[in-house]
Amino acid sequence: MKCKRFKKLISCVMTMTIMATMLTSPSDVLAAETNNIGTLKEAKARVSVHDPSIVKDGNKYYVFGSHIEAAKSTDLKNWTKFTNSYTTPSNVLFGNLSKNLTGSFAWAGENDGDCLGGHSVWAPFVFKNENYVNSNGTKGAYMMYYCTSSTYKRSAIGYAVSQKIEGPYTYVDTIMYSGFTKKNAHDTNSVIDTKYTNTNIKKLIDNGKLAGTSPNWFTSDGSYNTSNSPNAIDPALFYDTNGKLHMIYGSWSGGIFELDMDDTTGKAIYPDKEGTSLDGNTIDRYFGTKIAGGYTDSGEGPFVVYDNSTGYYYLYVTYAGLSATGGYNIRMFRSKSPDGPYVDAAGNNAALTSQMDNSSVGIKLMGNYKFGCLDVGYRSGGHNSSFIDSDNQMYLIYHTRFDNGTEDHEVRVHQMFKNEDGWPVEAPYEYNGDVISKNGYSMDEMSGTYEFINHGTSNSGASMLNTLSVNLKNNNTITGDVTGTWSSNNGSYYMKMIIGGVTYKGVFFKQNDESKFNSKVITFSAIGSNNQSIWGSKMETDSQTVKYEASRLQDNIPSSAKVDITLPKSGVYDTKISWTSSNPSVVNNKGKINALDGAVDVTLTAQISKGKAVITKEFKIKVKGRINELNVTPIYRYDFNKSSGGTEVLNSGSKTGNSTLVGSSSISKDDQRGKVLQIKNANKAVKTNYLALPSDTFKGMTTDGYTVGMWVNVDTTEPNYLEHSALFEGNAGGQNKFPMTRISANLFGRINSNGTWADATNITTGLIANTWQYVTYTVNSAGIHVYLNGNEVGSSSKDLTKCFKSDFLSNITDVRVGSGDIWGDRDISSAKFDDVSIYNTALTADKVEALYSMESETATSVSILNSLLSLLGINLSFLRPSL
To answer: I need a surface site. Which of 289, 315, 318, 680 has the fewest CB within 10 A?
Structure first.
């Protein structure tokens, strides 16, 4: 399938590569010291629960989160998910989801607005209320407060009850609405009339619970006033010292609000009139007391925990955007009163008085960081909960994303300790059962060289924070990248640092780091009067570090492979790694695999160094033979090598039909793949720059299904990047036009056709930023499968026969690459595409592997040829062959 000239050129290149490798083999140097690494940690059972809210029931801990997901644990380290997301009617938590929550869905959250074709049930809070009076007159129930949402402002908070913490929960009432208008109106993609009389406000007025509407709720044209009024999401509840129940809620918009609650009924106690609290915070007759934020500044996911050892209520709020590059970060305030004022370490009130840059307001607990022992750094940790266990240990629970170019997220749990001023500080590493020494630590333990991170106060998430190096000297001075003084209190874990004239107070804590070994290190965590948190982790010696990295690599290099292997050039604690291969024609020094017809054994040798310490380690790998038999021809295929000279891109598939470059989309040269499709879009662009495929692409699709495959290279670090942007979408003519099928940049695969829909949204591996990867998704009568580089990363099994009935998919006439607006999403901000192929059958897993193998062969040929031609000073990238 490849041209003969490619084989000859590749053969020459391989010969030169082998000769070069023979001349550059590393020396076999072994460090003399014995490494005291310790035993391997037991791998933790991880879960992905967004916006986790913690509750303890008996000897079990539960986290409940958005999208109707929840998990449980007995040790706060290993979690097991027990829910099934939006599945209905057999939903674990709600049974018949649509029917049960119809009271809330009547306003927002089901097949409407932003969640057209699906649901949006977010950020629940669960607790056991012994005072709740059930419908049968008995007392006590587990209560779940949740929110449903259709736009950035139109949402609702409702509650449901159960006699079992794991449900099912039965709907009771919807108590808070937002996004309503003064007159009849409709949001985009919605048939819901947003006039306030369609909420519970009219009934409250009729029953004398509210003295009419408030002019503060509306702008001059009768729209909802988002600067003053909240978005009704993210409820969390807590009891004060008098046993009175309170609810806090809100997101961006008008801020975070607090309402008194009746714990016998679960209903809200509305203030009934505007005013100002004794502490100066604004009171709204319906929404309650504003305790944080406002004026559309960022802030969501509020949570309050009371600590009787300090007498403070601690308020947590998360700022910025939730994506991996959005800067999501947790802020902390405290108050002696449940309704505020809540202030930070610098004395700022959490409730804003005007629109401003709020980055300096609130103690920032953490930003985007990476210690040397971590394989991958952390990004956008936020939307937390917190609790104090029966042993008085405080914990912080949140979801975090990672510095790996994806939007994957997982739950993390960290211990917290109060400093001398009564502020909780967060332990740098996740909870692993460690107990802080009440008597503190010795000078030998505390002094030494530390990795140092200052989390600052910025809300930007574009980059990782700098990991610096400091020395804590025995004479209590700090040298290195940061200078100052430090001290500790004899007989306690308290510590203090003065850096740049700012005083930071916190604790020393010996805890397990997050390496794969049982390795305890001294850490410190402190907060400053400037609202900045600083962390430190004591470092290992060079000889220990290289041996640790050699052992760590053992877990990361596979014993068998069929796709390219990631061979890192650097490791933990700034170790350097170089690689050689015993058979570079099969696996080269960069981990690129050229599979042969049969299996081949290859030895990869890593040389690991830091300073003068050097060690080598061998890894034996069996490279599996390729699967060559695809025997399926795409109906449409666009490799961008051929064009009409204008906006048309020629098709090499079995059907007749060219694609069309729309807007500024163009064919450009890529050093790795030759000619490719380049798409760039401004912020919030919709159907602007993309590739339009033939309108009959889905005509004649049967229950055998279809497959979309393509090389993609997405810049997920671009400021305007949105993870829901479509890589590929087909619809019946734009927004709210069904049938629809799509795959987005987060690799969510979807179909909604003829009244039946399915979503493959539980994706195990996402795209890596600015990297060519092959994406495939298949749909047939049995469900959806999503593949990345030939490996399945997500699926949804469901009877989709109705989707294909009577050629219903032929109604899809608007087919695009790099664009999609079925839910009002924007076009992809910056991406490249290549070899876009459509098949009129759902390829099996083996066929997808064969497809990827063939595509990878072509990619390898192009890369090698381009490298050779570049050495010769020749530019012939247009010679890339087609399959």
So the answer is: 680
- Per-residue CA distances from 774 to 714, 769, 837 (Å): 11, 13, 11
**Which one-letter amino acid corresponds to residue 360?**
S
The mean-pLDDT minimum among 413-422, 652-661, 822-831 falls in: 822-831
Tell me how crowded residue 380 is: count the other CB atoms within 10 A of its CB.
Answer: 28
Please state whether the predicted TM-score (pTM) of the whole model is above 0.70. Answer: yes
Question: Which amino acid is residue 677, in one-letter code?
Answer: L
pLDDT digits (tens, 9 = 90+) for 126-156: 999 999 999 999 999 999 999 999 999 999 9
Calculate mean pLDDT across residues 384-396: 98
**Distances from the Cα of 95 to the Cα of 81, 90, 91, 134, 166, angstroms:** 17, 5, 4, 19, 12
Give ∠ CA 284-286-291 in degrees, rounded to 5: 45
Residue 781: exposed, middle, or buried by beta-carbon count in 10 A (0-12, 13-18, 19+)?
middle
Which is nearest to 407 in space by CA: 751, 768, 115, 829? 768
**CATH topology assigned to domain 443-542:** Lipocalin (2.40.128)
Model confidence over 54-70: pLDDT tens digits?
A: 999 999 999 999 999 99
pLDDT in tens, 555-583: 678 888 877 888 999 987 788 999 999 99
Which one from 69, 297, 300, 857 is the annotated catalytic residue? 300
Question: What confidence tens digit (pLDDT) does each residue in 751-764 have?
Answer: 999 988 888 887 88
What is the distance, to the nearest Å, from the Cα of residue 761 to the centroid of all Cα atoms in its chain? 12
Q: Tell me the CB-side half-sphere exposure of residue 753, using CA atoms within 13 A.
A: 32
Known active-site residue 51: yes
Q: What angle do CA 82, 87, 88 make, to 5 degrees?
A: 125
Most confident listed range (302-311, 616-625, 757-766)? 302-311
Structure tokens given for 854? 């063939």
Query: What end-to-end distance do the CA atoms of the chain give, in Å?
Result: 6
Q: Give me the DSSP letters along 725-765.
A: -EEEEEESSSTT-SSEEEEETT--EEEEETTEEEEE---SS
Query: What is the distance between the alpha carbons of residues 672 and 772, in angstroms, rounded to a whole number?
Result: 9
Task: State how far the alpha carbon of 159 is from the alpha carbons of 124, 242, 567, in Å.
Answer: 9, 23, 50
User: How does residue 863 score in pLDDT terms, banded at 50, 70 and 90?
Assistant: low
Residue 372 — very low, low, confident or very high, per pLDDT cuts 50/70/90? Answer: confident
Q: How confident is the model at residue 187 (pLDDT cuts 50, 70, 90)?
A: very high
DSSP assignment of 672-739 equals: TTEEEEEEE--TT--SSSEEEEPTTTTTT--TT-EEEEEEEEE-TTSTT--TT-EEEEEESSSTT-SS
Which candidate, 94, 95, 112, 96, places its Cα nearest to that of 156? 112
Domain covering 636-879 assigned CATH 2.60.120.200 in the classification? yes
Residue type, 343: V
Grade residue 710 by pLDDT with cuts at 50, 70 and 90.
very high
Q: Domains of the chain: which residue ranges? A: 4-30+552-623, 106-368, 443-542, 636-879
Measured distance CA(492)–CA(503) in Å, rounded: 19
The arrangement of strands across the sheet holding 600-610 comes to 560-561, 613-623, 600-610, 576-581
Residue with tokens 């290289």: 546
Flag whether pLDDT at 124 surpasses 70: yes
Q: Give the pLDDT of residue 20.
A: 39
**Residues making up the chain, counted from first to last:** 883
Joined tokens for residue 647: 């906006």
Token pair of 376 as six digits? 């991958």
Indicate if 629 belongs to the active site: no
Q: Residues 822-832, buried b or exposed e (16+ Cβ, 10 A)?
A: bbbbbbbbbbb
For position 33, what pLDDT does the model report? Answer: 32
Residues 710/728, Cβ–Cβ less than 8 Å: yes
H/E run at residue 857: helix 845-872
C-alpha triplet 124, 130, 132: angle, nearest 5°: 70
Reading the block at residue 412, the tokens are 């993390």
Q: Of the CATH numbers 2.40.70.10, 3.20.20.140, 2.115.10.20, 3.30.479.10, which one belongs to the domain with range 106-368? A: 2.115.10.20
Which residue in this structure is represented by tokens 């760039």?
Answer: 680
